[in-house]
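Lecture notes, part 5. Sequence design as translation. It can be helpful to think of inverse folding as translation between two languages: the language of shapes and the language of residues. The source text, in structure tokens, appears below.
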């Protein structure tokens, strides 16, 4: 990791900022909140913005970026923008069209990173979560390797600088890595990763393959009613984490983010509050001693906030494997 730029080098030679700003919007959050938050994040110094077609916040992301470019705060090349291929576009002939829709929403010429959002394929069409009359997900069957070849073509076409995956387990990564005629390795695997799910085995596997692990839900979860069990513990209220935050005169969120950075993980943080956004970007100002890292390691309880219930029952549902 380059301390000067606080960036991590990807296996294709590009660099990704080690701290990113997430833009997922739960249904219960006000429509304009993401736009306000992205403006605040860019003003605070975030230069890595993570979005996805399915979040339906790409237009807000693009609007905020373009307004900051127009104001002279940033140039397009200063921004690292990630978006993701949704599960209803896995068929090779649909991959580029989904990226082009995202770029149109963003009103940008290219994305810095494009990820296969999940290894699960769903029936193509207008519905983001297609279901039958019984509320059961309508799945599709597409070879992950064929989808990956279409991703490679998007990179060759200059629509995206780097390509990777999200929510893949090690077996699914192996499929791509062992694909005959592989042109580009995935540069990263973006997965749920936090103190209660520290992904030790998957992290070690990814490091061995020169694939960067990117952590979402790093501060726990925004707990959207549709996806997260309301009885699950609130990560940032963990007493051990809170005690450590007091000891270092930092917020629990700063400690939780710093923990991942020191493990070589690129970490995404999300908040709608200005003071928290400003706090979160201060994670490069301190370091945790090894004994504190060990204590934080011990908090792992294999707890997943976002088990993606819509994908359960699909042969490529990723969370049935150990890692």
């Amino acid at each position: 990791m380059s301390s000067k730029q606080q960036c991590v080098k990807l296996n294709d030679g590009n660099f990704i900022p080690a701290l990113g700003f997430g833009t997922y919007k739960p249904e219960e959050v006000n429509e304009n909140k993401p736009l306000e938050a992205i403006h605040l994040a860019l003003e605070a110094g975030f230069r890595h913005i993570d979005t996805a077609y399915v979040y339906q916040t790409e237009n807000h992301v693009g609007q905020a970026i373009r307004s900051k470019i127009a104001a002279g705060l940033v140039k397009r090349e200063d921004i690292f923008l990630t978006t993701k291929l949704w599960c209803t576009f896995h068929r090779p002939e649909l991959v580029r069209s989904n990226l082009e829709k995202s770029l149109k929403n963003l009103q940008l010429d290219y994305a810095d990173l494009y990820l296969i959002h999940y290894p699960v394929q769903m029936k193509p069409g207008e519905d983001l979560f297609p279901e039958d009359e019984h509320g059961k997900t309508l799945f599709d069957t597409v070879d992950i390797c064929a989808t990956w070849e279409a991703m490679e073509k998007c990179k060759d076409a200059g629509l995206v600088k780097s390509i990777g995956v999200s929510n893949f387990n090690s077996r699914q990564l192996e499929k791509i890595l062992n694909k005959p005629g592989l042109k580009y390795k995935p540069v990263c695997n973006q997965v749920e990763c936090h103190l209660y799910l520290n992904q030790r085995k998957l992290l070690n596997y990814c490091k061995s393959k020169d694939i960067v692990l990117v952590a979402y839900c790093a501060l726990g979860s925004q707990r959207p009613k549709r996806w997260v069990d309301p009885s699950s513990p609130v990560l940032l209220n963990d007493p051990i984490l809170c005690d450590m935050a007091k000891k270092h005169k930092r917020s629990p969120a700063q400690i939780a983010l710093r923990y991942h950075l020191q493990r070589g993980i690129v970490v995404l943080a999300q908040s709608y509050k200005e003071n928290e956004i400003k706090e979160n970007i201060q994670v490069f100002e301190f370091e945790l001693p090894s004994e504190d890292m060990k204590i934080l390691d011990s908090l792992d309880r294999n707890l997943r906030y976002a088990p993606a219930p819509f994908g359960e029952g699909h042969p490529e549902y990723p969370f049935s494997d150990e890692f």
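The translated text above is only one of many valid answers, since several sequences can fold into similar shapes. The radius of gyration is 19 Å.
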